[in-house]
Amino acid sequence: MHGAIHIQKENGEGRDFHLPHHILQQLSIQEETPMIVEFGSKAAAVTIKGTKERHARLSSRTADELLFPDQGSFQLRHDEGHLRIGPHLGILAAGREKYLPGKRKRFNRVLQNDPLQSGILTIFSLDGIQSRHTQLSGYMYNPLDESWEKRLLPYPDVVYKRMSLKKELKLSFERHVNGAVFNQAVYSKWQVYQYLKKDPSLLPHLPPTALFTGGSEAVDWVNQWGSLFLKPVKGSFGRKTIQISPSAGSRTLHVRTREDGTNMEKCLTPEEAAIHLNKSIGRKPYLAQKSLDIAFNHQVIDYRIYLHKDRQAEWKAAGWVAKTGAPQSIISNLAGGGHASSAEDVVRSCFSLSKEEIDHLREEVFSVCCRAAERLEQESGTVFGYFGVDIALDQKRKIWLIEMNHRYVDDRLPLYAGENELYWHIQKSYVDALKGMCGFPQEHIPDPR
Description:
The protein has helices at 21-27, 60-66, 100-113, 167-176, 189-196, 215-225, 270-281, 343-351, 355-380, 413-416, 420-437; strands at 5-10, 16-20, 34-39, 42-51, 56-59, 71-79, 82-86, 88-94, 120-130, 135-142, 147-154, 158-161, 180-182, 209-211, 228-232, 242-246, 253-259, 262-268, 286-290, 295-296, 299-309, 315-324, 339-342, 386-393, 399-405. A hairpin with a 6-residue loop joins strand 16 and strand 17 (253-259). The strands form 4 sheets. Strands 1-5-2-4-3-7-6 form a 7-stranded mixed barrel. It has a 6-stranded mixed beta sheet with strand order 11-10-9-8-12-13, sandwiched between helices. A 6-stranded antiparallel beta sheet has the order 14-19-15-16-17-18, with helices on both faces. The protein has 449 residues and is an alpha+beta fold. The radius of gyration is 26 Å and the shape is elongated. The chain contains 11 helices and 25 strands. It folds into 4 domains: 5-86, Barwin-like endoglucanases; 88-182, Rossmann fold; 208-290, Dna Ligase, domain 1 (2-Layer Sandwich), CATH 3.30.1490; 295-437, D-amino Acid Aminotransferase, Chain A, domain 1. The chain is 28% helix and 36% strand. This is YheC/YheD family protein.
Protein backbone atom coordinates (compact mmCIF):
# COMPACT_ATOMS: atom_id res chain seq x y z
CA MET A 1 0.00 0.00 0.00
CA HIS A 2 1.45 3.35 -1.04
CA GLY A 3 -0.78 5.76 0.90
CA ALA A 4 -0.46 6.81 4.51
CA ILE A 5 -3.19 6.27 7.07
CA HIS A 6 -3.71 7.71 10.53
CA ILE A 7 -3.48 5.00 13.22
CA GLN A 8 -4.31 5.65 16.84
CA LYS A 9 -4.30 3.57 19.99
CA GLU A 10 -7.72 3.00 21.56
CA ASN A 11 -8.72 1.85 25.01
CA GLY A 12 -9.61 -1.80 25.22
CA GLU A 13 -8.25 -5.17 26.23
CA GLY A 14 -9.07 -6.91 22.96
CA ARG A 15 -6.67 -7.78 20.19
CA ASP A 16 -8.43 -6.02 17.34
CA PHE A 17 -7.03 -3.88 14.56
CA HIS A 18 -9.80 -1.80 12.99
CA LEU A 19 -9.07 -0.74 9.42
CA PRO A 20 -11.25 1.38 7.09
CA HIS A 21 -13.13 -0.66 4.50
CA HIS A 22 -11.31 0.96 1.56
CA ILE A 23 -7.97 -0.08 3.13
CA LEU A 24 -9.15 -3.67 3.55
CA GLN A 25 -10.13 -3.67 -0.11
CA GLN A 26 -6.75 -2.27 -1.22
CA LEU A 27 -4.88 -4.86 0.84
CA SER A 28 -7.20 -7.74 -0.15
CA ILE A 29 -7.94 -8.56 3.51
CA GLN A 30 -11.25 -9.99 4.71
CA GLU A 31 -12.86 -8.89 7.97
CA GLU A 32 -12.38 -11.18 10.98
CA THR A 33 -9.12 -12.42 9.48
CA PRO A 34 -6.44 -13.44 12.04
CA MET A 35 -3.23 -11.54 11.31
CA ILE A 36 0.27 -10.98 12.69
CA VAL A 37 0.80 -7.23 12.92
CA GLU A 38 4.42 -6.02 13.05
CA PHE A 39 5.97 -2.75 14.11
CA GLY A 40 9.75 -2.66 13.94
CA SER A 41 11.08 -5.77 15.67
CA LYS A 42 7.86 -6.43 17.61
CA ALA A 43 4.93 -8.60 16.50
CA ALA A 44 1.48 -9.44 17.92
CA ALA A 45 -1.53 -11.52 16.87
CA VAL A 46 -4.67 -9.53 16.04
CA THR A 47 -8.06 -9.92 14.44
CA ILE A 48 -8.76 -7.56 11.57
CA LYS A 49 -12.02 -5.65 11.86
CA GLY A 50 -13.60 -3.20 9.40
CA THR A 51 -14.68 0.34 10.23
CA LYS A 52 -16.49 3.14 8.44
CA GLU A 53 -14.08 5.67 9.95
CA ARG A 54 -11.27 7.13 7.88
CA HIS A 55 -8.56 6.32 10.41
CA ALA A 56 -7.40 2.99 11.86
CA ARG A 57 -7.59 1.95 15.50
CA LEU A 58 -5.27 -0.46 17.30
CA SER A 59 -6.30 -1.91 20.67
CA SER A 60 -4.24 -0.57 23.56
CA ARG A 61 -3.24 -4.08 24.65
CA THR A 62 -1.75 -4.80 21.22
CA ALA A 63 -0.25 -1.31 20.90
CA ASP A 64 1.53 -1.74 24.22
CA GLU A 65 2.95 -5.10 23.14
CA LEU A 66 4.27 -3.47 19.97
CA LEU A 67 5.56 -0.37 21.85
CA PHE A 68 3.45 1.56 19.36
CA PRO A 69 3.03 5.35 19.81
CA ASP A 70 -0.34 6.79 20.76
CA GLN A 71 -0.96 7.86 17.18
CA GLY A 72 0.75 8.55 13.90
CA SER A 73 0.53 8.51 10.12
CA PHE A 74 1.86 5.19 8.77
CA GLN A 75 1.99 2.96 5.74
CA LEU A 76 0.85 -0.66 5.76
CA ARG A 77 2.43 -3.63 3.98
CA HIS A 78 0.53 -6.92 3.73
CA ASP A 79 2.31 -10.18 2.98
CA GLU A 80 0.97 -13.70 3.63
CA GLY A 81 -0.75 -13.19 6.96
CA HIS A 82 1.62 -10.46 8.16
CA LEU A 83 0.71 -6.78 8.26
CA ARG A 84 3.66 -4.44 8.82
CA ILE A 85 3.18 -0.88 10.10
CA GLY A 86 5.90 1.61 9.23
CA PRO A 87 8.27 2.93 8.39
CA HIS A 88 10.23 3.17 11.62
CA LEU A 89 13.56 4.81 10.75
CA GLY A 90 16.46 4.66 13.23
CA ILE A 91 19.73 6.52 13.63
CA LEU A 92 22.34 5.23 16.08
CA ALA A 93 23.65 8.71 16.73
CA ALA A 94 25.73 8.60 19.94
CA GLY A 95 27.50 6.36 22.40
CA ARG A 96 25.66 7.74 25.40
CA GLU A 97 22.13 9.04 25.82
CA LYS A 98 23.25 12.37 27.27
CA TYR A 99 24.57 13.40 23.83
CA LEU A 100 21.27 12.81 22.02
CA PRO A 101 19.68 16.26 22.60
CA GLY A 102 22.48 17.85 20.56
CA LYS A 103 22.01 15.32 17.77
CA ARG A 104 18.28 15.97 17.89
CA LYS A 105 18.84 19.65 17.14
CA ARG A 106 20.73 18.75 13.96
CA PHE A 107 17.86 16.71 12.57
CA ASN A 108 15.27 19.29 13.61
CA ARG A 109 16.39 21.47 10.72
CA VAL A 110 16.44 18.55 8.29
CA LEU A 111 12.92 17.45 9.22
CA GLN A 112 11.54 20.98 9.19
CA ASN A 113 12.77 21.55 5.63
CA ASP A 114 11.84 18.06 4.42
CA PRO A 115 9.21 16.62 6.79
CA LEU A 116 8.38 12.95 7.04
CA GLN A 117 5.17 12.12 5.22
CA SER A 118 4.59 8.96 7.23
CA GLY A 119 6.22 6.81 9.89
CA ILE A 120 8.55 7.91 12.66
CA LEU A 121 12.26 8.64 13.05
CA THR A 122 14.13 7.62 16.20
CA ILE A 123 17.60 8.70 17.24
CA PHE A 124 19.17 6.52 19.91
CA SER A 125 22.44 5.74 21.67
CA LEU A 126 24.48 2.63 22.37
CA ASP A 127 23.57 2.66 26.06
CA GLY A 128 19.88 2.87 25.15
CA ILE A 129 19.84 -0.46 23.27
CA GLN A 130 18.22 -3.36 25.14
CA SER A 131 19.25 -6.24 22.91
CA ARG A 132 17.73 -8.90 25.17
CA HIS A 133 14.27 -7.48 24.45
CA THR A 134 14.98 -6.17 20.90
CA GLN A 135 14.02 -2.67 21.98
CA LEU A 136 15.66 0.66 22.69
CA SER A 137 15.22 3.93 24.48
CA GLY A 138 15.52 7.00 22.32
CA TYR A 139 13.94 10.17 20.99
CA MET A 140 11.07 9.60 18.56
CA TYR A 141 10.14 12.25 16.02
CA ASN A 142 6.47 12.03 15.06
CA PRO A 143 5.55 14.21 12.07
CA LEU A 144 1.98 14.60 13.29
CA ASP A 145 2.98 17.06 15.99
CA GLU A 146 6.51 17.82 14.69
CA SER A 147 8.11 17.18 18.05
CA TRP A 148 10.44 14.72 19.79
CA GLU A 149 9.30 12.37 22.51
CA LYS A 150 11.60 10.29 24.70
CA ARG A 151 10.22 6.77 24.84
CA LEU A 152 10.79 3.04 24.58
CA LEU A 153 10.51 1.63 21.05
CA PRO A 154 11.23 -1.60 19.16
CA TYR A 155 14.23 -1.97 16.89
CA PRO A 156 13.56 0.12 13.75
CA ASP A 157 12.91 -1.17 10.22
CA VAL A 158 16.24 0.24 9.06
CA VAL A 159 19.22 1.66 10.97
CA TYR A 160 21.85 4.21 10.01
CA LYS A 161 24.81 3.26 12.20
CA ARG A 162 27.23 6.11 12.91
CA MET A 163 29.58 4.10 15.14
CA SER A 164 30.94 0.63 15.70
CA LEU A 165 28.90 -2.11 17.34
CA LYS A 166 30.16 -4.93 19.52
CA LYS A 167 29.63 -8.40 18.11
CA GLU A 168 26.61 -9.13 20.32
CA LEU A 169 24.75 -6.01 19.24
CA LYS A 170 25.75 -6.46 15.62
CA LEU A 171 24.28 -9.97 15.58
CA SER A 172 21.15 -8.78 17.39
CA PHE A 173 20.54 -6.09 14.77
CA GLU A 174 21.20 -8.51 11.91
CA ARG A 175 18.57 -10.90 13.28
CA HIS A 176 15.85 -8.46 14.22
CA VAL A 177 16.09 -5.37 11.99
CA ASN A 178 13.62 -6.11 9.23
CA GLY A 179 15.13 -3.84 6.56
CA ALA A 180 18.84 -3.17 6.83
CA VAL A 181 21.60 -1.90 9.07
CA PHE A 182 23.64 -0.14 6.46
CA ASN A 183 27.42 0.29 6.53
CA GLN A 184 27.49 -2.55 9.05
CA ALA A 185 30.72 -4.20 7.88
CA VAL A 186 34.14 -2.52 7.69
CA TYR A 187 36.58 -3.32 4.91
CA SER A 188 40.27 -2.47 4.70
CA LYS A 189 41.84 -0.52 1.83
CA TRP A 190 43.23 -3.77 0.44
CA GLN A 191 39.85 -5.54 0.56
CA VAL A 192 38.17 -2.60 -1.17
CA TYR A 193 40.85 -2.62 -3.88
CA GLN A 194 40.34 -6.35 -4.44
CA TYR A 195 36.60 -5.85 -4.91
CA LEU A 196 36.83 -2.79 -7.18
CA LYS A 197 39.50 -4.15 -9.51
CA LYS A 198 37.07 -6.86 -10.65
CA ASP A 199 35.16 -4.19 -12.54
CA PRO A 200 36.82 -3.49 -15.93
CA SER A 201 35.29 -0.01 -16.03
CA LEU A 202 36.88 0.91 -12.67
CA LEU A 203 40.31 -0.65 -13.18
CA PRO A 204 41.66 2.36 -15.16
CA HIS A 205 40.79 4.56 -12.16
CA LEU A 206 42.68 2.48 -9.57
CA PRO A 207 46.33 3.33 -8.88
CA PRO A 208 48.62 0.25 -9.08
CA THR A 209 48.48 -1.28 -5.60
CA ALA A 210 50.14 -4.22 -3.82
CA LEU A 211 50.58 -5.52 -0.29
CA PHE A 212 53.79 -4.53 1.48
CA THR A 213 55.85 -7.63 2.28
CA GLY A 214 59.24 -6.09 3.02
CA GLY A 215 61.57 -3.15 2.51
CA SER A 216 63.49 -4.71 -0.37
CA GLU A 217 60.32 -5.24 -2.36
CA ALA A 218 59.29 -1.64 -1.69
CA VAL A 219 62.60 -0.50 -3.19
CA ASP A 220 61.87 -2.66 -6.24
CA TRP A 221 58.48 -0.95 -6.60
CA VAL A 222 60.23 2.44 -6.59
CA ASN A 223 62.33 1.25 -9.52
CA GLN A 224 59.17 0.08 -11.29
CA TRP A 225 56.75 2.92 -10.43
CA GLY A 226 59.11 5.83 -9.91
CA SER A 227 57.57 6.85 -6.58
CA LEU A 228 55.14 5.24 -4.13
CA PHE A 229 53.15 5.58 -0.95
CA LEU A 230 53.07 3.06 1.85
CA LYS A 231 49.77 3.24 3.75
CA PRO A 232 48.39 1.30 6.74
CA VAL A 233 45.82 -1.17 5.44
CA LYS A 234 43.38 -0.06 8.14
CA GLY A 235 44.62 3.48 8.68
CA SER A 236 42.75 6.76 8.36
CA PHE A 237 43.38 10.52 8.21
CA GLY A 238 46.70 9.90 6.41
CA ARG A 239 48.38 8.78 9.64
CA LYS A 240 51.58 6.71 9.36
CA THR A 241 51.74 7.27 5.58
CA ILE A 242 55.21 7.04 4.04
CA GLN A 243 56.31 8.34 0.64
CA ILE A 244 59.40 6.99 -1.12
CA SER A 245 60.84 8.81 -4.13
CA PRO A 246 64.07 8.42 -6.12
CA SER A 247 66.65 11.17 -6.52
CA ALA A 248 67.50 12.32 -10.04
CA GLY A 249 70.95 11.10 -11.05
CA SER A 250 71.58 9.35 -7.75
CA ARG A 251 70.86 6.04 -6.00
CA THR A 252 69.55 7.95 -3.00
CA LEU A 253 65.90 7.52 -1.98
CA HIS A 254 63.87 10.19 -0.23
CA VAL A 255 61.73 8.66 2.55
CA ARG A 256 59.17 11.23 3.69
CA THR A 257 56.55 11.21 6.47
CA ARG A 258 54.53 13.79 8.35
CA GLU A 259 54.67 13.54 12.12
CA ASP A 260 53.00 15.87 14.63
CA GLY A 261 52.38 18.46 11.94
CA THR A 262 55.99 18.42 10.73
CA ASN A 263 57.36 17.11 7.43
CA MET A 264 60.14 14.59 8.05
CA GLU A 265 62.57 13.40 5.39
CA LYS A 266 65.46 10.93 5.30
CA CYS A 267 67.86 10.51 2.39
CA LEU A 268 68.90 6.87 2.31
CA THR A 269 70.57 4.37 0.02
CA PRO A 270 68.27 1.60 -1.26
CA GLU A 271 69.83 -0.80 1.27
CA GLU A 272 69.36 1.67 4.13
CA ALA A 273 65.80 2.40 3.01
CA ALA A 274 64.92 -1.32 3.06
CA ILE A 275 66.28 -1.67 6.60
CA HIS A 276 64.50 1.51 7.73
CA LEU A 277 61.15 0.34 6.34
CA ASN A 278 61.46 -3.12 7.86
CA LYS A 279 62.17 -1.51 11.21
CA SER A 280 59.46 1.19 11.09
CA ILE A 281 56.70 -0.98 9.57
CA GLY A 282 57.66 -4.42 10.81
CA ARG A 283 54.75 -6.82 10.51
CA LYS A 284 52.06 -4.15 10.52
CA PRO A 285 49.77 -4.58 7.47
CA TYR A 286 50.64 -1.95 4.88
CA LEU A 287 49.94 -1.57 1.20
CA ALA A 288 52.04 0.06 -1.50
CA GLN A 289 50.44 2.39 -4.01
CA LYS A 290 51.98 4.17 -6.96
CA SER A 291 52.29 7.91 -6.41
CA LEU A 292 50.08 10.13 -8.55
CA ASP A 293 50.99 13.48 -10.07
CA ILE A 294 48.46 15.46 -7.98
CA ALA A 295 50.59 18.27 -6.51
CA PHE A 296 49.67 21.77 -7.66
CA ASN A 297 51.91 24.63 -6.55
CA HIS A 298 53.73 22.15 -4.28
CA GLN A 299 50.49 21.19 -2.50
CA VAL A 300 48.77 17.82 -2.74
CA ILE A 301 45.10 18.17 -3.73
CA ASP A 302 42.39 15.55 -3.66
CA TYR A 303 38.61 15.58 -3.31
CA ARG A 304 35.94 14.11 -1.01
CA ILE A 305 32.72 13.07 -2.77
CA TYR A 306 29.70 12.40 -0.56
CA LEU A 307 27.55 9.53 -1.84
CA HIS A 308 24.22 8.32 -0.50
CA LYS A 309 21.26 6.23 -1.54
CA ASP A 310 18.19 8.23 -2.49
CA ARG A 311 14.57 7.38 -1.70
CA GLN A 312 14.54 4.81 -4.50
CA ALA A 313 17.71 3.20 -3.05
CA GLU A 314 19.81 4.41 -6.01
CA TRP A 315 23.29 5.85 -5.51
CA LYS A 316 23.56 9.63 -5.83
CA ALA A 317 26.25 12.20 -5.08
CA ALA A 318 25.31 14.94 -2.62
CA GLY A 319 28.37 17.02 -3.57
CA TRP A 320 32.11 17.34 -3.24
CA VAL A 321 34.81 19.27 -1.40
CA ALA A 322 38.48 19.84 -2.20
CA LYS A 323 41.22 19.01 0.32
CA THR A 324 44.52 20.83 -0.10
CA GLY A 325 47.55 19.67 1.88
CA ALA A 326 49.99 21.86 3.74
CA PRO A 327 52.93 23.06 1.59
CA GLN A 328 55.35 20.19 0.88
CA SER A 329 53.16 17.76 2.86
CA ILE A 330 52.62 14.26 1.43
CA ILE A 331 48.97 14.16 2.57
CA SER A 332 45.93 16.41 2.11
CA ASN A 333 44.09 15.62 5.36
CA LEU A 334 43.04 18.48 7.59
CA ALA A 335 44.50 16.58 10.54
CA GLY A 336 47.86 16.84 8.75
CA GLY A 337 47.70 20.61 8.30
CA GLY A 338 45.56 20.77 5.16
CA HIS A 339 42.43 22.79 4.51
CA ALA A 340 39.07 22.28 2.78
CA SER A 341 37.60 24.52 0.11
CA SER A 342 35.11 24.58 -2.74
CA ALA A 343 35.84 21.72 -5.13
CA GLU A 344 34.73 23.68 -8.17
CA ASP A 345 36.84 26.71 -7.24
CA VAL A 346 39.90 24.46 -6.90
CA VAL A 347 39.20 22.64 -10.17
CA ARG A 348 38.81 25.96 -11.95
CA SER A 349 42.09 27.20 -10.52
CA CYS A 350 44.09 24.03 -11.24
CA PHE A 351 42.88 23.41 -14.77
CA SER A 352 41.55 26.78 -16.01
CA LEU A 353 38.23 25.25 -17.04
CA SER A 354 35.02 26.90 -18.17
CA LYS A 355 31.78 26.35 -16.24
CA GLU A 356 30.59 23.87 -18.86
CA GLU A 357 33.86 21.92 -18.61
CA ILE A 358 33.67 21.87 -14.82
CA ASP A 359 30.07 20.62 -14.97
CA HIS A 360 31.09 17.82 -17.32
CA LEU A 361 34.07 16.84 -15.15
CA ARG A 362 31.94 16.86 -12.00
CA GLU A 363 29.37 14.54 -13.55
CA GLU A 364 32.13 12.20 -14.74
CA VAL A 365 33.64 12.11 -11.23
CA PHE A 366 30.25 11.46 -9.63
CA SER A 367 29.50 8.69 -12.14
CA VAL A 368 32.78 6.88 -11.40
CA CYS A 369 32.17 7.14 -7.65
CA CYS A 370 28.60 5.84 -7.88
CA ARG A 371 29.81 2.95 -10.00
CA ALA A 372 32.43 2.14 -7.34
CA ALA A 373 29.75 2.19 -4.62
CA GLU A 374 27.53 -0.17 -6.62
CA ARG A 375 30.42 -2.54 -7.28
CA LEU A 376 31.66 -2.61 -3.69
CA GLU A 377 28.16 -3.35 -2.44
CA GLN A 378 27.67 -6.05 -5.06
CA GLU A 379 31.01 -7.79 -4.56
CA SER A 380 31.08 -7.62 -0.76
CA GLY A 381 27.45 -8.59 -0.23
CA THR A 382 27.21 -5.79 2.36
CA VAL A 383 24.40 -3.24 2.40
CA PHE A 384 25.74 0.32 2.32
CA GLY A 385 23.89 3.60 2.58
CA TYR A 386 26.61 6.23 2.32
CA PHE A 387 30.26 6.71 1.37
CA GLY A 388 32.83 9.45 1.55
CA VAL A 389 34.88 8.71 -1.57
CA ASP A 390 38.33 10.24 -1.87
CA ILE A 391 39.41 10.80 -5.46
CA ALA A 392 42.29 12.63 -7.13
CA LEU A 393 42.61 14.45 -10.43
CA ASP A 394 46.11 14.31 -11.87
CA GLN A 395 47.73 16.91 -14.12
CA LYS A 396 45.90 15.43 -17.12
CA ARG A 397 42.56 15.51 -15.25
CA LYS A 398 42.41 11.73 -15.04
CA ILE A 399 40.15 10.48 -12.24
CA TRP A 400 41.77 8.23 -9.61
CA LEU A 401 39.88 6.39 -6.86
CA ILE A 402 41.87 6.71 -3.65
CA GLU A 403 39.65 5.51 -0.82
CA MET A 404 36.04 4.46 -0.10
CA ASN A 405 35.43 5.76 3.43
CA HIS A 406 32.50 3.93 4.99
CA ARG A 407 33.38 3.44 8.66
CA TYR A 408 33.59 7.11 9.56
CA VAL A 409 32.72 9.77 7.01
CA ASP A 410 33.65 13.26 8.19
CA ASP A 411 30.60 15.21 7.07
CA ARG A 412 31.94 18.42 8.63
CA LEU A 413 34.38 19.07 5.77
CA PRO A 414 31.82 21.19 3.88
CA LEU A 415 31.53 23.47 6.92
CA TYR A 416 35.30 24.01 6.91
CA ALA A 417 35.04 24.77 3.20
CA GLY A 418 32.25 27.31 3.73
CA GLU A 419 29.79 24.98 1.95
CA ASN A 420 27.02 25.11 4.56
CA GLU A 421 24.30 24.20 2.07
CA LEU A 422 26.14 21.01 1.15
CA TYR A 423 26.51 20.11 4.83
CA TRP A 424 22.74 20.26 5.34
CA HIS A 425 22.14 18.42 2.10
CA ILE A 426 24.32 15.60 3.45
CA GLN A 427 22.34 15.49 6.71
CA LYS A 428 19.15 15.24 4.65
CA SER A 429 20.70 12.51 2.53
CA TYR A 430 21.04 10.25 5.58
CA VAL A 431 17.28 10.40 6.11
CA ASP A 432 16.70 9.86 2.38
CA ALA A 433 18.85 6.72 2.53
CA LEU A 434 16.78 5.42 5.43
CA LYS A 435 13.57 6.07 3.52
CA GLY A 436 14.89 4.32 0.46
CA MET A 437 15.98 1.21 2.37
CA CYS A 438 13.12 0.82 4.86
CA GLY A 439 11.06 -1.58 2.75
CA PHE A 440 8.12 0.80 2.34
CA PRO A 441 7.39 2.68 -0.91
CA GLN A 442 8.03 6.41 -0.83
CA GLU A 443 5.18 7.72 -2.97
CA HIS A 444 2.70 9.56 -0.77
CA ILE A 445 -0.97 9.31 -1.68
CA PRO A 446 -3.33 11.24 0.62
CA ASP A 447 -6.20 9.36 2.24
CA PRO A 448 -9.42 9.63 0.26
CA ARG A 449 -11.98 11.95 1.87
